[in-house]
Design brief:
By secondary structure, the chain is α+β, with helices and mostly antiparallel strands. The chain contains seven helices and ten strands.
Length: 269
């Protein structure tokens, strides 16, 4: 009796074992196919000069869809009715979607960002009180690298509905600077000194021309605005160097740069 029971169990065990082996082989092949498909799509999109953000977004979307199909195929191999499972998954998706409206908004925001392209990967932007270089545009969030090397993650939904300042969108930028000089200063000489600095600065563009002008008669001094145009990549380098040179040259010329001060007149009775 035991021998007959063992004989009946051996084919079932072998069948189950073979089914498990084939399922594992199917899983292994499926993972390799997904990996190959993702690499193929990424290379194809990169060759087509598609934005890096679009490549990252579509890669994440294809990954989720491919893994879902693989799981459903594995369930079908084990005899599980995928039709009812898909129906259940759809119902669960509706319920989850209602509870995760924010996530869906982020997903839709990501699509809007990729379609409207207010920025792309590599741009330096400011939004939602944060700023940095766009490192990645994923399904639900955009990652920025700040100037002090922090990762800032912004939800795509919030980002797509906020004001975005893209500092990298145009090839040139205007550098807005100002310096105060004392009221007894020679304004023409002060302007000439500043113009000489800008003329010698190689990275200051000739067209559009820079502006050096008296802007305000302040409480402590006369404000002179300095507004040269530069290539976007040279913005900070030019700003820092010009401000330092203006300070040194005005001091050499004996032109006073005043600090906040107040004059008090005492009346004697």
């Amino acid at each position: 009796m035991e021998g007959q029971l063992l004989e009946n169990m051996i084919p079932k065990v072998l069948s189950a074992g073979m089914s498990l082996v084939w399922s594992l082989a199917f899983l292994f092949i499926g993972l390799k196919v997904i990996q190959f498909l993702r690499k193929f799509l990424r290379r194809a999109m990169e060759r087509s000069n598609i934005d890096t953000g679009v490549v990252q977004f579509l890669d994440a979307f294809v990954k989720i869809c491919a893994y879902t199909v693989l799981i459903l195929a594995l369930l079908a191999r084990f005899g599980i009715q995928t039709t009812s499972f898909i129906t259940l998954l759809g119902s669960a998706g509706v319920a989850i979607g209602l509870s995760l409206q924010g996530s869906l908004a982020n997903f839709a925001g990501g699509i809007l960002i990729l379609v409207l392209k207010p920025f792309v990967v590599g741009d330096y932007i400011s939004s939602c009180g944060c700023e940095g270089t766009v490192a990645e545009i994923s399904l639900f969030a955009t990652t920025l690298h700040s100037a002090d090397n922090r990762n800032v993650v912004l939800p795509n939904g919030t980002l797509s509905n906020s004001n975005i300042v893209n500092f990298s969108a145009n090839e040139t930028r205007r550098v807005d600077m100002s310096v105060d000089v004392a009221y007894n200063s020679d304004l023409k000489r002060a302007r000439k000194v500043i113009e000489e600095i800008l003329d010698r600065e190689e990275k200051v563009l000739k067209d559009p021309a820079y502006v050096v002008a008296v802007n305000e008669l302040g409480d402590s001094g006369i404000t002179i605005v300095i507004r040269p145009w530069v290539k976007t990549a040279d913005y900070w380098e030019v700003r820092w160097r010009v401000l330092e040179l203006v300070h040194d040259r005005l001091n050499e010329e004996g032109i006073e740069i005043p600090f906040p001060q107040m004059t008090i007149h005492m009346e004697q009775e």
